Amino acid sequence: MEKTQPSLHLAKRKRTIGNRRRGLLKRLLASKTASAGSVLMIVVAFISFFAPWISVYGPLDVDIVNRLSPPGAQHWFGTDNLGRDIFSRVMHGTQISAQVGFAVALSVAVLGLVIGLYASMYKWLDQLLMRTMDALFAFPAILLAIAIMAALGPSVSNLIICLIIVFIPSVARIVRSAALVAKEQTYVEAMHALGASQTRILWQHIMPSTISPLIVQSSFIFAEAIIVEAALSFLGAGIPAPMASLGNLLADGKMYIYNSWWMTLFPGFALIISVLAMNLFGDGIRDLLDPHVRQGKGKK
Fold first, then answer.
1. Which of 219, 281, 282, 247 lies closest to 97 in space, CA to CA?
2. I want to staple 33 with a disulfide (CB 3.0 to 4.6 A). Which of 56, 131, 213, 284 is the partner?
3. Is the peptide bond before 59 cis (omega within 30 degrees of 0)?
4. What is the pLDDT of residues 262-283, one digit of tens each?
């Protein structure tokens, strides 16, 4: 009998978790915002992954004879001032932007989670970490990114490190706020009374309460990282030319915007779609995970 009760309790808990996951999936499919964002994300991910196989031309292939050709059957998006295929360069630029955004969002989520959790648990560490985060947060993102890139030099790896430093403060502060709220809950006090270690309380009981805001913020950072990467590349401080970054494509097209509009239109449209996909997905996830938003929509 003693062995049966834990088994029944474990089975009941698994059923409850399964029902919650199915309910979350149903709400995700029912949300127009999340569904639209998911579709656009799938399109961007498909382009990013299959870019080398979809494009007929290489992103660096030069064809001087057909330079500045308008969109047509041979070059769907036209060619640039060196005869490079815009369609191929847009797809590879989207691939690079998605890779940078994903790497930055994942790294910032992990580092911000660790910093926010330990800052909420230890006061002396809170003062040290949060004052450092406040100092970084005081600078505008683009200015701080330009300063860091000027010190590190233009490259993809340096750009990722730069954007991680820029976006860590916002995630760390959000995780710390959620952890401080969870820290005052009754079940956490009960674990302290039972003699549980600080590490166990932090990672098993406080950390799960920070996952929802962490996921939402990470999705927005994905989009912001793509924007800042494009801005830095446009200014010449991001991904070095001639790599096919969306920012580099926009920088190349600004000199020919009146006569060869396709050099600016298609990279700009790809940038808009990439950012819009992550913003819609983030809004949808926020609506699903925030009970206050769901209750407000239910009353309407």
1. 247
2. 284
3. no
4. 889 999 998 988 888 888 877 7
Query: Which of the 8 DSSP states describes residue 56?
Result: S
Burial class (CB in 10 A: 0-12, 13-18, 19+), 3: exposed
Q: Sign of the CA dihedral 277, 283, 285, 287?
A: negative
What 8-state DSSP symbol labels residue 70? P
Q: What share of the chain is helix, strand, coil (3-state, %, to 5)?
A: 80, 0, 20
CA distance between the termini of the chain? 49
Per the CB < 8 A criterion, the answer to whether 218 and 105 are in contact is: yes
Q: 138: which residues sit within 8 A by CB, 6+ positions away? A: none
The two tokens of residue 24 are 């979350």
Tokens linked to 289 = 């995970």
